[in-house]
Amino acid sequence: MSNRIAYRPEIEGLRAIAVVPVILLHAGFTTFSGGYVGVDVFFVISGYLITSIIQREIEAGGFSFTGFYERRARRILPALFFMILCCLPFAWAWLSPPDFETFSASVVSVCLFVSNIFFWRQTGYFDTASEFKPLLHTWSLAVEEQLYLLWPIGLILLHRYGRRWRVIALCTVAAASLAAGEYLSWHHASFAFFWAPTRVWEFTAGALCAGLRLSPSRLWGGFSSSAGILALACALMLFDDKTRVTGVAGLLPVLGTGAILLGASKDTWVHGVLASRAFVGVGRISYGAYLFHQPVLALARYRLGADLTPLQACGSIGLTLLLALVTWRWIEQPWRRRDLSWARSSRRFSIGALTAAWALMAFGLAYSPAGGLAHTAADLGERVRINFGLDRDCDGELTFSPKCQTGDDPVVLLWGDSVAMHLADAITASNGAPALIQMTRTGCAPLSGLASAGENRGVDCIRQNERILDWLRSHPAVEYVVLSSSIDYLLDPNRRVVSDEGQPIPGTEPMVLAALERTLTAVHELGRHVVVVSPMPQNGSDIGGCLVRALANGDDPAGCNFETSSYSLGTILSYQLLRKLETRWPVIWLNRLICKESKCPAYEDGVIIYRDAAHLSHEGSAYLGRQAGFWNLIRDRAE
């Protein structure tokens, strides 16, 4: 028996269906709003092919771990390293210091195949938007490589048992992974998205298809493959950024892909389409196209602006396909087929691959915070550092750290989430400002009995707010309490809030307003003066990132300013709630302090106002505090 599996051109066509929507979606074309499911399709295909290969070799008695991993390395590494090398000069020349630092660190994670974990850790509230991360897409390669480490071992262990038990074992793994993906998609969405355990069920679905080895009739094959195409079309066009694809919703594209793998026999119309020259041609360069699309688009946005014009987006796609073709012809094929005489030896290939990986990691570890941007201010990265307020220790569980207060007997308490943190400099920079104490935590609004459900939030936030009130009761020297919160994330219909009982429910404006008023009433009943400060005016884009790119590239930062007419939906909803609150409680409106004549400046008098989409920079906060006399404003408005 040959240990080689038969070439199936329709799988190349399926790869084309997977990669094209991904590229179009990331380029800004929303026809395929669920284009990201192309990655899920790739996982199923990989599970099918890898399992088929390993299974055949085991049955033929010729499986070799060395041979398996060498083939995987020849398939993945040359094109991957070539893509990174192509990125380096442009990242060096164009990225801002903090983003270049992140890029360099990501190079190391890619070479170690842990970039899924690296980017999972980069999904915090303050991180750079995904469209500006050139290597973000490599998370899926990392997941595959992690699965490759265990998959052959698992199949070898299962081979000693009968087919029935192998199927039961694979179904059990898939069910457990799917259940974890569904649960975590609600409670730890970023973990569910990036980590291998919640993706293994998709890989296993492909493995089950490989184990079935069906020879379907024309009727059954036509029905199965047609249903699969319909399922993929529905997922690609109906899913959006709110769909929790790592859970039950992901069954649609995964089962659709499986139906095509099982049913697209040569006498079906689906096979005819997928095996056509156009689909096969795109499928053959799909790996290179996937590798290059994210860095091309990310770097284009860095130079041309976050919102690419249709012409710029099409140009980026064209460049991606050209690079993919070059990669397939002169990088992928020679290495896989061992056309290069000096690389035919497994030993030479291993030495070359390790040398390339070590060289790239050495570059990543030796980055300069200022990167290749010697023409920019050396302190640009410092100027846009995350604004935790008085200190990094002021974000998290209450520790009453001395770093989070400016005197032994604080007079002002700053309480809220990250939108409260960025007000610390505004208060301390004001003339005559008294001692301040900061009690803040990202994602924890100053609400009584209500909090956002999700990572690092929920009931813990409710308990923390109760502790703050208890502390306030025992510290009568505190005369003023300043509350601030982003609010909009509490009103997002696709997210949940929790009450004291801990049950996730949709947040509503009356619910959030009542919880905020309970806090205000509790503070007022303690005899303290209290005021609410609104969130920053926002337009839905990363204004701070726009500023950094403009300053790094010598462009006019005024291009990052925006009109009040372009407020984001979150800003509109937050301000709508605060206007209702203002009929009973004092509110300080940041939009009235920042925006003038219907225009909101991102950069003023040489000062970076916004550090990201929703927060003041340290210098912007201090500037606002001095210009507006923020402490006097608090004292005058507080009740």
Report on this model:
Helix 4 packs antiparallel against helix 16 (346-365). The termini are far apart. The strands form four sheets. The chain has a five-stranded parallel sheet, with helices on both faces. The protein has two domains: 9-365, no CATH class; 383-538 and 567-594 and 628-637, Rossmann fold. Strand 11 (603-604) and strand 12 (607-608) form a beta hairpin. It is 58% helix and 6% strand. The protein has helices at 9-26, 37-59, 65-94, 97-111, 115-121, 139-159, 163-187, 189-194, 200-212, 218-238, 251-263, 269-274, 277-284, 286-304, 310-337, 346-365, 380-383, 418-421, 424-428, 459-473, 488-491, 509-525, 543-553, 569-581, 590-594, 618-628, 630-637; strands at residues 412-416, 436-440, 450-452, 480-484, 496-499, 504-506, 529-533, 562-563, 587-588, 599-600, 603-604, 607-608. It has 639 residues and is an alpha/beta fold.
How would you sum up this structure in a few lines?
Helices cover 58% and strands 6% of the residues.
Tags for this entry?
single chain, 639 residues, alpha/beta, Rossmann fold, three-stranded antiparallel beta sheet, elongated, transferase, acyltransferase, membrane, transmembrane helix
